[in-house]
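User: For a benchmark we're assembling, each entry needs the component sequences followed by a predicted structure for the full assembly. Here are entry 17's components. Please fill in the structure.
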Amino acid sequence: MKKFLSRKQFSGPTFNNWMKFLIIGLVLSVLTTVVLQFAMYFQIWGRFDQTLNLGQAVLTSIKFLTRAQALFTIVTCLILFIFIVVLVNRLFVGIAIYLTIAVVTFIAEYMKMKARNEPILFSDMSEVTAVGGLTQMVDKNLLMLAIVGIVVVFVGAGLLEYWLHRKRSGRFAESIKRMMIKQTGTRIAILLVSFLTLASPFIANADQNRALLDHFKYQWQSFNTGEDAMLNGPVMTFVSNISSVIMRQPSGYSQKSMAALQKKYTKYSETLNKTRQDNLKGQTVAYILSESLTDPDDVPGLKYKGTDVFKNIKQIQKNAVFSGKMLSSGYGGGTANIEYMTLAGFPLATYAPEMVVPYTQLVPVAHDVPTITNLFQDREVIHPYVGTFYNRRDAYKKIGIQKFYTTDGKQYKYPEKYVKSVGSKNNYPADKYSYKYLTKKITSANNNQSQFIQLMTMQNHMPYSANQYPDSKYKMLEPAVTGNTKETVESYIAGVHYTDVATKNLINKLENISRPVTLVFYGDHWPGVFTFVDQDKQQERSHETDYFIYQNKAAREKSHAKTDHNQRAYASPSDFPALALEATNSKLTPFYALQTKVTKELPAFANYTRGEFVDNNGHTLKTKDLTKKQKKLLHEFKLVQYDLSSGKHYLSKSFTKH
Amino acid sequence: MVMNNKDRTIQILSSFSFMMLIFISIINPQNHSILYHFFTWLTWPTIFFIAGYSIDVNLKIGQSIFLAVKRYLVPYLSAGLLMIVMNKVVQLLQLSTWLNTPFPAMRTGLKALLYGNGSPVVTIFGFFDTGIGLLWLLIALFTGTLLMIFISKIKKMFWAVLIIILLGRLGFYLATFIQIPWSLESALIALPFMLFGVYYQKLDNWSAGPATVLAALIVDLTMSASTGLDMIVAYTPFWILGTLTGLISLAGVIVVASSLIKNSALTNLFAKIGSYLSLNLVVFIFINTMIPINNYIGGLLPTGMLSFIIIWLIMLIISTVIKFGLVKILKTFSGQEGELDEKVFK
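Assistant: Structure for entry 17:
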């Protein structure tokens, strides 16, 4: 070995030639970083620094270089450049290949941002095979320009290489040739090091990846990948999405234990299904996620002048199949997380603490995402706003949502006629109009098809400002607050009033239609306006919103469900699928049988923290306070959650599907 | 005395590093972050490179340590003690309008001097809110030289490089949570530059040319856009990249310096400025720490480029004049006669 090493002296270009190589690589890498950032900023969306002013977009992209995050992209591009050139060992051909990759990446990033205000994510790599379909989506002029550019670059590279390798080459040609590595061993060593460096984010786990990115001052924007890319650069956003800690393996996880659970809950579902009907056909289950809705009467210390702002919803709750308080994971935001729990039936509290946005961290990479929507034939979501947040479009695709109506939708556009507001013209679309569109969708559903429809409202979304509702008579009396808090709270209360009235009218309308409709209604989280509430002292209260599951006359007659509306006075959003299926008296898969058991035997998960629960009387319990039976059920639930989300998928399809 | 080209290059580098040190000491990093970062990547590696070059690998370890004590530790302690005493005098005579008082009390000053931390940091005894200021550089040069004296005895280059990489990593790691005495972390992360200096002594032929300068410029600018080399607390967000940037930037400065030796007039001027580097450092650090020249000039001239250049020139001239005055005094006391030679270290 010693002999071998002494013979194999690693040699390569001189120091100055290395520096020449570095100059070319660095210039290209810096340009690539600026161009990729330009693809983020030269957009119509108007978020952060996005603009259609070419000069401004270029300047902002150059300014990005002053961020530490830019170094990550520069270094990545430089290593890629080194890898390519050393691989082909031809400088100009290497540059041409690098430029082709850069151009293709730029177009892909630009077009995806243009379409969704989202950069390319790791989950998009599954679509790379559909090149034909993807190129059809690209702007024709841009595509032609890129093809011509790439052809010119390759022809130029070919000619330059030919010129370099003539018999009588000049000094410049010789100097270029001297930049190349002649010794195979050195080349292999460089290729290996650069390849492993580039591949490391794909091999490393989420914690290691995050540690790497944190070195470059990564600023994670958990709710919006578009904004993440604007702050950190699309390359960093891409790497940050490669791997993620979804859930840590619960003890006793094995093929054997999962097979036992499959058997146990198949048997349990069969027992429950003896009294259940297979009756979703011709029915609608509608979810309404009422943005930032909570009962102002529940806010500690808040007193206002005006009629009971929540009286109609309170009344509906009394007549509902189930109703009570929902334990949200968010305060002032985090809508998509609550939404995910209501669809998937998994609480956020049992995932790893690092897994904070399932739509971006879990859904794109999960083996299987069983949600309540899978039980229906027609699956639609309505959102009277843009659909770019939380990676919803991709996530919905994965969970089988067929149509996603948004104001910026191209294929499925939320109709203009329902984009009306109450109060000030600048307010978000009002609930009463969103409800009208929802009702239209329900009444026009096919009688032979089961329908799942979800509406995510916008009316009460922040920001709240003075004079949002000029006709409002609601006045905040207590507590005494400073600044514009009083005006924002008053605007919020007025908004809640409009929601309350609109919800009553919706229920009245649904009550009289012939199609059986089960409505799951909930406020997703508190608004961030009650600044006088000490969140540390009022942790539970400030995460409680109202929910109800209502059935219209046709649904009640069809299901014959015997329930007590206080049966789940405190519910986790993850309880909703099981509760909705109980309301419709539908047959259950083993998966929903387990969820049903959880809603009946476990207190509700307190999703704003970990290891805590709230019982039906509103008392907080810790895991250690649970009974032995409850602890066993919790463990089984976690095993199933782990297996389906990040485990080895030992459970067969029959566990989650009929 | 015949000086070879490499010695001449080092003299020019010494003057460069001194001028750049004045520059980064008086510039406002908040207002001119890129410019500040840019020069940190050049200044610190150059100073430590010169220190590495000045180690005579042929000397016995004892002799080398004695030289290091003479070059760095004695000036460090002398200047530090003088600053502490002067600090007390200024406090007693209430002259703080005219002179700075960097230490709240003699005791804290002495503590900072003995610990050798440049700025307030978490020490092994807990948080210490007083630092010795720019004087940390001398103690870091001392500890770095001590380490390099031993490392330079390693015959196989591979092992020397490996040890330096490991020690550098250790320095960056330790700096994330604690500062150990005598600015040891700063010395540890500066070892690659010092080794380059040691290696440069032995180098017969180095192919660096204009491309190296251009590469150094691009690398330095790319890094400077977002971060600099914060040697006082041994911090750069990316230690491998940071060390490589420092080395490439240094290579660029060396090429520039070596290209200037053809011009004898310039070489002579730079040789004068760069001679007696540790004295240069001590004098400048003392002036910079104790005399608020910014305040004097700021009162006479509006802030801006002109006043900045004037302050920089004043600092350079005063430091150089005082340095030669001190050299003359020291020579008179030690009984040495004749012209002042232009060696970087004497």
